[in-house]
Fold this sequence. Notes:
- The complex is a heterotrimer.
- By secondary structure, chain A is α+β, with helices and mostly antiparallel strands.
- Chain A has helices spanning 2-17, 45-51, 102-113, 122-125, 156-161, 239-247, 262-266, 296-305, 308-316, 346-356, 372-386, 399-408, 424-429, 446-457, 461-478, and strands at 26-30, 59-61, 67-69, 72-77, 83-88, 134-141, 144-149, 191-197, 201-206, 217-218, 221-222, 230-235, 253-255, 271-277, 281-286, 362-368, 391-397, 413-418, 481-485, 488-494, 497-498, 514-515.
- Chain A is 29% helix and 22% strand.
- In chain A, the strands form 7 sheets. Chain A has a 5-stranded mixed β-sheet with strand order 17-16-18-15-19.
- Chain B is mainly α.
- Chain B has 10 helices and no strands.
- Chain B starts with a helix and ends in a 7-residue tail after the last helix.
- The mean pLDDT of chain B is 80.
- By secondary structure, chain C is mainly α.
- The mean pLDDT of chain C is 80.
- Classes of the chains: A alpha+beta, B mainly alpha, C mainly alpha.
- At the A-C interface, α1, α6 and α12 of A face α2, α3, α5, α7 and α8 of C.
Amino acid sequence: MKxxxxxxxxxxxxxCVLPAMAQEPLRASLNSDIRSTQPGGNRDFNTDSVVLxxxxxxxxxxxxxxxxxxxxxxxxxxxxxxxxxxxxxxGVTFHNGVPLTSAEVLWSLRRYMDxxxxxxxLPDLNxxxxxxxxxxxxxxxxxxxxxxxxxxxxxxxxxxxxxxxGETGILxxxxxxxxxxxxxxxxxxxxxxxxxxxxQFVELDRFDGYVSLPGERDGFxxxxxALVPKVRFVVIPDSSAAKAALLAGxxxxxxxxxxxxxxxxxxxxxxxxxxxxxxxxxxxLMQTRDPLLKDARIRQAIALSLDVPELVSAMIGxxxxxxxxxxxxxxxxxxxxxxxxxxxxxxxxxxxxxxxxYRGQTIRMITNRRYPxxxxxxxxxxxxxxxxGIKIELEVLDWATQLDRYTRGDxxxxxxxxxxxxxxxxxYEMLSGPKDMQPRKVWEDPQALALIQQSxxxxxxAARQRIxxxxxxxxxxxxxxxxxYNQPDYLxxxxxxxxxxxxxxxxxxxxxxxRD
Amino acid sequence: xxxxxxxxxxxxxxxxxxxxxxxxxxxxxENPLRIAMRARLNAPSAAHWLGTDEVGRDVVSRLMAGAGxxxxxxxLTVLAAVVLGSLIGLVxxxxxxxxxxxxxxxxxxxxxxxxxxxxxxxxxxxxxxxxGIVAALxxxxxxxxxxxxxxxxxxxxxxxxxEASRSIGxxxxxxxxxxxxxxxxxxxxxxxxxxxxWAILAExxxxxxxxxxxxxxxxxxNMLAAxxxxxxxxxxxxxxxxxxxxxxxxxxNLLGDALRDHLDPRSRPQ
Amino acid sequence: MTATYALKRLAMAVPTLLxxxxxxxxxxxxxxxxxAQLMLGDAADADQLAALRESMGLNHALPxxxxxxxxxxxxxxxxxxxxxxxxxxxxxxxxxxxTASIVLLAVALAALIAIPLGTIAAWxxxxxxDVAVVGGATLLLSIPSFWLGLLLLLFFGLKLGWVPVVGxxxxxxxxxxxxxxIVLPVVTLTxxxxxxxxxxxxxxxxxxxxxxxxxxxxxxxxRESTVLRRHVLPNAFxxxxxxxxxxxxxxxxxxxxxxxxxxxxxxxxxxxxxxxARDYPVVQGTMLFVAAIYVVVNLLTDLLYPFFDPRVAAE
Lengths: 516, 270, 315
């Protein structure tokens, strides 16, 4: 009784406070706090999203996730394919007002190539992973930067542009202290570092001296305008709470919306939900060394027992198509030869199971609740496979434990989500490799591994296309993994917010976004 | 009057819950595990009294089956905690000396660990399974049981009949079994009733944090957790399991009160 | 006497805390998955993992890691978060402030409601009023806190829009705003703790009412209300105080769920997030801190007990 009068008093008072919210910054949700402000350093997906508002690289991803010039005006490749010459744009300044020259670019790249920096993408550029090896870097004049590789590498620019590499963001040396310790990003992006209240929010301020590329927004490149003086990324780990925050007007933009929250949001007139397929892959991994699952017939039977289009449409409706291939549906290398998937056929599945001598043994499938789509896929798979007499038991783990099991290859089946791979060779490489050396890999068929290797060195796109077509055929007969679909990136925002848009790479972009 | 009312209401509620739990092992209106993707989130209707959930399963059937799982997990948890805790408490209280000190040190350390956190850590190690929950919660509640049993033992062992039993040459084990253990029964019964309620609550809280009994087996806790995103558009999904938990706990608490009043003459109405 | 007793009790707490530290450390390392793996995700190759583990200091033998951590902890340095490099002790203190303000407010409110209510119920034992109070309290304590929280959030936050549904503002910044953000979690906890405490206060008061000096006071012809106010209420407070200590300790552990529902950056969420992120120093530090708080709260209630209970003081 006492509490209710207490509440009523409070409520009356609250109503007077609400109008003050008009001066609030543009607020977007973030499902976990950023790890640091270092590009490509201590990072995760959210860290990349925030950091890439402040720093920019020589090249950046465009809307379809292909690398295009950003701070470089143009990129020339020498005839032998080894030397890249970046000509810098004029008039670009850092957040501290200092104009961008090749000196800062050279300083930044040297810093990234220094093992002490612990840059995430160093192994990809020093030859460790075999993708590319930088042998020389130079700044012949103030507007020119050259990078020489040991041998031609088709993936060099796309590595530089990768969001998880922090776009190899060019920094002013004042970003670090005299001892080399990180202070904050002094970059060239449309926003500057503001207040970071850990566990609560990160605030960025508009950089008034920003010189935009002409044209529309184009991925992480193209025209960028900071339309609001301040943006704030509000940390809300709980997705239901995040949704509630959007509905109550405590945030303006809801990023990375999990699929279970969508029906409620779509039912609201004052909320807009947009979707765009990403390059991430949701699917079911099968351990090809498992005593039971090493028999391809059982793996095929599981695939045949699933009505994937039904499963996908029940989970995400029409937001993304079902996709049987490790290549994302948006990939330029997806040909007609790579679209087929055998329709659900319970009788055929049962036949295969009988041939393989399956007698109802339990197959354990690992899943987690951190990614609702991964969890839903597991639950639906379990129910559908049961109709073909396949007994699947779910093991719901926390994400860290599942990752550990994945890394060690310690599972029978696993409902999993791969982070985006932006190159088709990498889409196959992510799941293929010798298990003795890389236990996390799913597929170790020698023929497939040879084909993937070929695809990395082939420069002719028609030749690559043929390789990927062949790989797909092999993949569909051996079924080391059942690909379901490419998870869409969902963005929801309140009435009055303009310009917010999801895209293939999935990171939130708050430039060119305004609020009435 | 209060005693009888508590016993009547609590008993009815608990009979209802356990009855449902047992029935669900043989019969539910529909298969609680059958997914119908075309019938997701249907509102309550004649066909589905409490509607369907996010993958089209019948909520009533799942609530019934959930009663089974929740009660089983809670009962096994209580059993584990009572057996282990009584053992520690008996030994500790009867042996005294350094054995007691060491056991109580461990016990205090465990008590200083908030139960749900202990369960959280243990579950991560043991893996989230029905048995993992029972082991984790059982262990989390063991120190509480040990404490109470030890206290009871300490007070009983000073009584004349225990001294008498020892003095006529009965072994310590026999004395403990014959004379000390029976004295701990009434505080234990009362405690076990509360533990049952705590276990149901803790299981639902763990499920809520994503670590409960793994699907597809329904428990009220994981139904509530799964319902969370739909609370606004499908409120029945969240209200029904929550109400089941609350009613069960109410039953447990009332029955516990009645039991305590019955077993502890001091608080009996004069 | 009290001072030596307190010191003795504190000394006794040292092995308990040490045991907690060892247990937490062991438990954490038994849990599969580590922070390096989480950071690298699905693309982690063995070399990169090894390098990252080394930079996090996870390559040493476990006893060495533990000794290093404990040594630093004894000097008051709980290390730095592996997830974002923050110093752990200030982080804990900052989060504890948030949790403590909610828990203390809720327990204080609950005590204010529960103790008089419980005393009156005891005084009118077995009356309709008593039955109603006990019944109401039992109902309140039977409601799962997070469920109640969700329903309140749904109703007051979303349907009525009276309070913000997410976030937190420190009291130092804007006391009024801070109150708005914590009102729902406080109300949720208060309601449930009122249920618990009312029952405790009632049975404590029943015990006191049976004591002879109450009968004596009554026989002197004192008015019932005076007896109740002067003798029963203060004395019933003592056992309730002990239980208040236990409630406080349990709340600190159980609040993780409430903090998740209301997205409050408190200690409970720090711990749960830390466990999920395998942020070893944060989890170890937080658990040690919670255990220490528990010990201190229990000690304080024990020390305060004689001041409220004439029976103990007389002995």
